Amino acid sequence: MQSMKMKSKKSAFALAIVIWIVAALLLGIAFIMNLANDNLKTTKVLDSKLKTRLEAISVIEVLKYAMLTSNYDSQSIFLQEKLPYDIPKHLFLDGRNYKIEKGIEFTLQDTSALLSVFHPNFELLARFATDNREQYFAIKDSVWDWIDEDNIVRLNGAESSFYKFKRSAQYGPRNYSAIQSINELRLVNGVYDLSDEKWKKLKKFLSLDGSSNMNVVLMKRFLLQKLLKLSDSQSTILESYKKTDMNKFYRKVEASRNYDNEVMSFALSFVIDVNLTVNDNRAATNIESMIRFKKLQDNRILVKSYKIY
Fold first, then answer.
1. What angle do CA 234, 236, 241 make, to 5 degrees?
2. What is the pLDDT of residues 45-70, one digit of tens each?
3. Is 243 part of a structural domain of the chain?
4. Same structural domain, 1 and 108
């Protein structure tokens, strides 16, 4: 009887061990399956990211081809050939957003409608930045001091001593004739003192391109108003001529006492800021690029900047 009880206890103990082993194996299998499922999801997302990246590169190449083969006027291009994507035949180069198939959207902005940071016009930059008279002169003179090579302070400007002692900054003026970044401009006295809201507004109208002439046709009404020193009503009327009578628009602009053909024009620069997004709901790829569509020796185009993420 006792031997039977001992055998029963041993069998129960062995069964318990087997159950624990089976449970551990099942937990291990469940963990491995969960890990495999996570890896499968990650693989699908990575596959989507790769596909959107390849699609974005493809669209950029199509847009390059379109720019090189299209007719154009002072503010837009007219596609001449059928393209692989459903791109509108008439594309305005004023930064408006175009959405086409497969979650693809892009903007094209000719930089002639923006303020050049690379070779800034001090007076225009200050005028666009602020309506405050004191700030206006501080920006105008300080940007000049920032890029000139001397250490002589202009009346409302700032040189090394200002940034070191009054701003306690670890930097000073570049003292070189070309600002290298839009955000670098934010460091300059006067611009530094703009509110975040005013800086964000100004930043939208800045470009690193070195274009000397500003295309008044492509300009937003706010810029055109500042450029020609117009009232709200005058700028609104002038803007309406773009839609109704372009020739009248040209005449009115040229007749303005503030029109200056040395810094203003009615022509595209063909230096284009391209911003492109491809999204398939799992992943997205963005491309930001500045492309010069002008013949340069043996090259048809020059990619001045390129970022993909």
1. 95
2. 888 999 999 999 999 999 999 998 99
3. no
4. yes
